[in-house]
Amino acid sequence: MPKKPSPRSLPASSLTMLDTGVPGLNEVLGGGLPAYSFNLIAGTPGSGKTTLAMQCMFGIATPERPGLFITMLGEPSVKMLRYQQLFRFFDASKVGSSVHFLNLSEEALTGDLDAMLFRITQEVERLGPSIMVVDSYRSLVKAAEAPEGYVEQFVQRLAVHLATWEITTLLIGEYPDQELRDPVFTVADGIFWLSQATHRNSVVRQFQVVKSRGTAPIPGLHTIRLGEAGIQVFPRIPTRFGDVRSRGLTRLSTGIAGLDAMMGGGIPAGDSLVLAGPTGTGKTTFAMRFVAAGLQADETAVIVIFEEHPEAYLDRARTVDVDLRAALTDDRLRIIYLRPLDLSVDETLDEIRVAVAAIGATRVVIDSLSGFEIALAPGFREDFRESLYRLIGALTALGVTVFSTVEVVGENGAGALRFTGYQVSFLTDDIISLRYVEIEGQLRTVLVLVKMRGSQHSRDFRAYEITATGVQLRETMRHYDAVASGTPTRQLRAPLEAFPGLTMTETQVLEAITTSGPTTLPEIARTTGLDPDQMPGLLDRLVRLEYVTKSGSRFLPATSPPDS
Predict the structure, then answer these.
(1) CB-count burial class (<10 Å; 0-12, 13-18, 19+) for 200
(2) How far apart are CA 49 and CA 124, in angstroms?
(3) Which pLDDT score is estimated for 240?
(4) Average pLDDT, the chain
């Protein structure tokens, strides 16, 4: 009799769980593949069944407890190995020691199931394997000319033998989608279904655990990707409340003078913020400033882009006084460029999670959700609303602050933000709306804070401009009505002063100093976009009114505001 296996175990269950060696598969299965289980890998042709089984075998087999791969009427071992050896998981040095192959096509052609079981028994007793793969079980059953009920008996006898030998078994079979009438489905401890669907010009492979005794797998369809390394499974994003980190009171700077003050001190750490606006309103510039502010504060960040090559993105950042190349070189910044047309949400999240974990990122920018939707396979676009919810929820659970841009393609009569037919407010804590307005024959850009959960914030419409130094906030729109309509009308009313005794320009300078901390006159001029020649007079007045103090060549906000 074979020796009992000593499997590499994963401490996720009371059962002994085998590490499959397939990225993402252990998590989907609830901790790994149960030792001594009798499993069926089913699915349509080309969905990756043989590759998955082979990868599992190379991941589990050892010289002491090898793997046995049996081919029957599907394809001969030589032909199968010709292609399987191209994958990186295939280790030729293990063939003949940890991994053994047996072709039983001649025996299978006779249709004598008793003879087949006898040959399998001989090999098992000779090798003492820990894992056995039969490819293809379905072709064997179809070739067998046996009386009614005999196939069921064969399957049950095989399962009993394998349980007695304490072997983990994977049977491979080609089945039409969701055909569950074969007797092996009753006997199997686990049923793993692989599918391959074509949507327009994209092809998506998916994995589903149909049945799994004694474990708690992640339900639903999981995307799989077949590449040079073999198969990778991308688990659907689960809701795990234990992973959610409690939020503190820390505020993160947006990197834009005045905007932090409008938000009550910046973006609450761990929030998800959506910046929504039509094309050309500077959404990417806002995102770049947010990343630059984090890097300046010794944080790390991840940028996910879909519409622009990283080199072009980096060049554009320099046009608004943001240089990201040094942070890339120092590995304080990662840029993820995703542009395939058959992408899944789970693949995207996996890329982001790996990058966040690698550099300990605290800020993530997704630029943009519009490009993200286009990059998805058509089948995933149907569930885009749910996908966004899962993606944003999983990222904020990691403790990062998410800054997403989205193009507004229409607004309803109530002014609610809309994105490709979906409401965006459900997935975010904070919303900043950018929009165009016409004032005195000119097209101007304004912003407004639509929503900030748990925060007091300004509700003013504020004009802004995109300059060579980034985003410059200008005057409030308090003298205008119907700003949200796009064609505001000017009204004569007494000004409401945010800071008593200050003009709008002086307020802008004070906000820049408050955001930046101790700073010099040239730095203030660059941040505000104002003429440096104006600065001495403006700063002297702020000092006299006790809004600002001076220390050497630097200016900093006063510890307490003056009496109004």
Answers:
(1) exposed
(2) 23
(3) 47
(4) 81
